[in-house]
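Need residues for this backbone.
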């Protein structure tokens, strides 16, 4: 058996296998012994029929093909083991017809996991961001809550911007009715966009019971190109005008926000929540920067199959999220005007980034000797059980594939923690001095001899 393996830049391994005819004959003998146990030949006990009789029954080629299939599987496993290949999908076998007495040759192309070449991830350093919450930040949150608790009260005066109005609204373009709304409620703004752009300015100054006709121009970039840029004729009857009545920002308002007795207690709670939220977000942003830097340093080649698998995972995550919001994936795709394949295609850039990051983390875990114990896998299964996930609850209940995937996930988490901890730890005085010395040495290397001599006080 002669096996050669060529790795391609597309993260595939091409196996070229040549088998001597003697090997094919021996494989056919083994196939005959196996098939003789499977088929009953009239006049013979199962397993005792001569080969010639079995060949008459199922065909000579069928026996040779059975032997060839075994040889192909054997040589494939041998090549994978000897060349340390990690297949990530099914092999595509190109097998030529068999000629009796002649060596048999076939090729198999298999997608593989290519080794990751890591960068100098130990040199990464990011400072922890300084998180602040100002008085203005707190007052902005309180003001927003104050607005949420406001009520709309009727007023007897002309409408103005920020009022809440009720109106009968007829909109036509070239004698075609585009909209005919009765008792339509909306807030007057200065920056209304879309179909009703420019309408609010004409309603400002109208009073309850007043009717008015006016024209505007539909925006050029309006989505309905048949009316975009055309003149719109309005007929509006104002039915009601209301203004916002804000409650006082005091202790009584604070009591409506939760278990607070005073406005100062609410302020302090808002400050703490803002600080906690910003700290969490800053930490997520920092972790993202560290992972992105480590990934950019590394040289990662991967088969497109990994990207497709990650895009499928993202697709199913969205599907699960939509189910929680009582929407089906089919409804989402219909609203998005996309097919499932088109949506998955859009997910591929994010999927590629995720897959690369995972490969880099796994490589770092291997480089740092980060391992996963059985107890750690069991702890993860216990967590899934508490969350109500439909998974096996004991390690020995996991399939080999499921265990490997869970182990890989835990290793990535460990590598992520290791990387972030080392990239964000405060630099010691020794490290800072070493960095300064390195920079100084670099600058000196770039100086001319005359510059170096002048700075040292020597002469040349």
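Answer:
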């Amino acid at each position: 058996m002669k096996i050669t393996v060529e790795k391609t830049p597309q993260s595939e391994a091409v196996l070229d296998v040549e088998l001597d005819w003697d090997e094919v004959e021996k494989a056919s003998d083994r196939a005959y012994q196996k098939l003789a146990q499977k088929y009953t030949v009239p006049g013979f006990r199962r397993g005792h029929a001569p080969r010639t009789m079995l060949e008459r029954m199922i065909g000579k080629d069928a026996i040779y093909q059975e032997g060839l299939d075994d040889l192909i599987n054997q040589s494939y496993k041998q090549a994978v083991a000897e060349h340390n290949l990690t297949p990530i999908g099914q092999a595509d076998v190109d097998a030529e017809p068999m000629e009796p007495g002649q060596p048999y040759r076939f090729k198999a192309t298999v997608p593989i996991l290519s080794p990751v070449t890591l960068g100098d991830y130990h040199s990464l350093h990011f400072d922890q961001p300084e998180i602040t919450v100002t008085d203005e930040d707190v007052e902005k949150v309180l003001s927003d809550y104050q607005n949420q608790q406001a009520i709309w009260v009727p007023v007897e005066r002309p409408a103005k911007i920020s009022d809440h109005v009720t109106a009968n609204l007829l909109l036509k373009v070239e004698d075609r009715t585009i909209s005919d709304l009765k008792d339509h409620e909306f807030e007057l703004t200065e920056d209304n966009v879309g179909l009703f752009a420019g309408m609010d300015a004409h309603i400002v100054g109208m009073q309850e019971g007043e009717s008015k006709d006016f024209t505007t121009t539909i925006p050029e970039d309006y989505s309905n190109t048949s009316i975009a840029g055309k003149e719109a004729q309005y007929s509006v009857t104002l039915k009601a005008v209301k203004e916002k009545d804000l409650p006082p920002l005091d202790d009584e308002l604070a009591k409506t926000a939760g278990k607070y007795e005073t406005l100062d207690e609410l302020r302090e709670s808002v400050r703490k929540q803002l600080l906690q939220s910003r700290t969490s977000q800053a930490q997520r942003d920092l972790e993202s920067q560290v992972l992105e830097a480590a990934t950019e340093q590394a040289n990662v080649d991967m088969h497109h199959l990994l990207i497709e698998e990650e895009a499928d995972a993202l697709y199913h995550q969205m599907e699960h999220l939509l189910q929680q919001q009582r929407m089906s994936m089919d409804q989402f795709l219909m609203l998005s005007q996309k097919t499932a394949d088109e949506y998955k295609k859009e997910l591929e850039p994010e999927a590629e980034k995720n897959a690369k990051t995972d490969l880099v983390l796994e490589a770092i875990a291997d480089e740092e000797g980060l391992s996963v114990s059985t107890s750690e896998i069991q702890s993860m299964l216990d967590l899934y059980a508490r969350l109500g996930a439909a998974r096996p609850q004991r390690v020995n209940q996991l399939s080999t594939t499921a265990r490997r995937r869970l182990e890989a996930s835990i290793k990535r988490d460990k590598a992520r923690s290791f990387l972030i901890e080392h990239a964000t730890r405060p630099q010691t005085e020794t490290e800072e001095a070493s960095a300064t010395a390195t920079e100084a040495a670099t600058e000196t290397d770039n100086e001319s001899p005359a510059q170096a001599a002048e700075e040292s006080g020597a002469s040349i």
